[in-house]
């Protein structure tokens, strides 16, 4: 294991029993035997990109899980449908978002079919040394590789076929880039968004464990707390804490523990003031996320008397 990777593992608080130079080599060999089928942009008749595809001359740090929201939780599990949603997503990203191509690097259908999203993502992944820059995690696209999972998973679980293909795809990506399972994240770990849905997000610890098993890695760790996501309508001590921080930052909000209009307006204003993206994911199509208070807003309001890790731990209680 390289020194940079070793430092990252130690920083993540891992108890590593198999991540070593020999262990990772064994894991990479094991994962190579389970290379998933990934349907290329040519196979789903993708439009050509409207601009140059940026290839970062480094590996991604994180593998990020999304949900598409639209299309929703339909029951067409066919390959033909998987190819069609890839075209639909590209059209939305290019024609509505104004992006040069599909935002995510890969798409996973409810039937368990995986397609290449942004052009060249499959080619570069197979090389294992570079990274196609996407447009799916605002302010972090140079370090994140994104996977859109067809459906809306705020209140329902993913189909078994989608789960199984997601595990296999992430294991392959992790194998190619030497990424250990603690670097599998949800979109909400970077931006204030519902994505990848509360139900799927709650299963990320299970996903990390399953990917580790696919890789042949025995990695024991407690999942480090992430910033909580607060939404308009929420109530409770976390909301009251956030309101106190907002008041200290100069916003005239109550401290009643109710995420009402005044609190929502303050969060929206703060996000706009700092240029935070409020529509970096298709999750924003399901509901207005402009006032969500999550991973990119908390660091702007928590006092400087503690580290961000300490504040995440405190807020997770």
Automatic annotation (TrEMBL):
<dbReference type="InterPro" id="IPR036365">
    <property type="entry name" value="PGBD-like_sf"/>
</dbReference>
<dbReference type="InterPro" id="IPR036505">
    <property type="entry name" value="Amidase/PGRP_sf"/>
</dbReference>
<feature type="domain" description="N-acetylmuramoyl-L-alanine amidase">
    <location>
        <begin position="48"/>
        <end position="197"/>
    </location>
</feature>
<feature type="domain" description="Peptidoglycan recognition protein family">
    <location>
        <begin position="36"/>
        <end position="191"/>
    </location>
</feature>
<dbReference type="InterPro" id="IPR006311">
    <property type="entry name" value="TAT_signal"/>
</dbReference>
<dbReference type="InterPro" id="IPR015510">
    <property type="entry name" value="PGRP"/>
</dbReference>
<dbReference type="InterPro" id="IPR002477">
    <property type="entry name" value="Peptidoglycan-bd-like"/>
</dbReference>
<dbReference type="InterPro" id="IPR036366">
    <property type="entry name" value="PGBDSf"/>
</dbReference>
<dbReference type="InterPro" id="IPR006619">
    <property type="entry name" value="PGRP_domain_met/bac"/>
</dbReference>
<dbReference type="Pfam" id="PF01510">
    <property type="entry name" value="Amidase_2"/>
</dbReference>
<dbReference type="InterPro" id="IPR002502">
    <property type="entry name" value="Amidase_domain"/>
</dbReference>
<comment type="similarity">
    <text>Belongs to the N-acetylmuramoyl-L-alanine amidase 2 family.</text>
</comment>
<protein>
    <submittedName>
        <fullName>N-acetylmuramoyl-L-alanine amidase</fullName>
    </submittedName>
</protein>
<dbReference type="Pfam" id="PF01471">
    <property type="entry name" value="PG_binding_1"/>
</dbReference>
